[in-house]
Amino acid sequence: MRNRILVVGVGGLGCPAALALAEAGAENLGLMDPDQVELSNLHRQILYSEKDLGRSKAEAAADYLRKRYRPLRTVPIVEALNAQNAEKFISAYDLVIDGLDRLEKKFFLNDWCVKMGKPFVHAGVVRFEGQVLPVLPGQTACLRCLVPKIPPPFAMPTCQDAGVLGSFSQAIGYLQAHEALRLSENRGPLLLWKVNAQERQARSLISRRNPVCEACGQGHVENEMTRPLCAF
Predict the structure, then answer these.
(1) Residue closest to 11 by CA, chosen among 107, 125, 94, 103
(2) Per-residue pLDDT tens for 143-153?
(3) Which of 78, 110, 199, 204 is 20 to 30 A distant from 90 in Cα terms?
(4) pTM for the whole structure
(5) What is the rounded CA–CA span in Å between residue 126 and residue 138?
(6) Which superfamily does CATH assign the domain made up of 4-205 to?
(7) Domain coordinates of the chain in residue numbers?
């Protein structure tokens, strides 16, 4: 597997994804998050407990995983991903996990990974709906292929606004890690997953690149358009 993995956003998706990757034998995990642990996080962000309240999420998660998985090297990054540091951090890893909480941040990460040719796995969850999309730049559809028009900032609610079951966000995070492992081991095809917990439905769809995608450009059409989801 690709052993240098960057988890951007160590929250409701990033926590279970990082844990699953550590259990699968990842050797080097970068854990990137500027926020501190809050009481409202604990029901779904499984790497933290009450003793971590007020601590940096990146550092608390790194400590937890380092103690539990001795061979694992964890690198806490207490910064938000932005235009000044994106190239530096993304270039240092082989694969990226999108655990971000806002749509505009997700598209920003998508664009940088596509630009740098870096494989990544997008995921989003809100209320009872979740989706996971593994992306191999230049070969598979990226997030902008599926959602050409980005909603304005704060148009979609976060889980703090709309609510989410902790068990469901964890399930989507584990599915995200599963797709990261498949992507890492070149086990195709790479599929878009759509999950609705309330209706007890899960679908896997073949997503094709959009030839006029602003991020990845050339490709083949016939996408099933998907509604974007927030994370966290």
Answers:
(1) 125
(2) 998 887 776 66
(3) 204
(4) 0.88
(5) 29
(6) NAD(P)-binding Rossmann-like Domain (3.40.50.720)
(7) 4-205
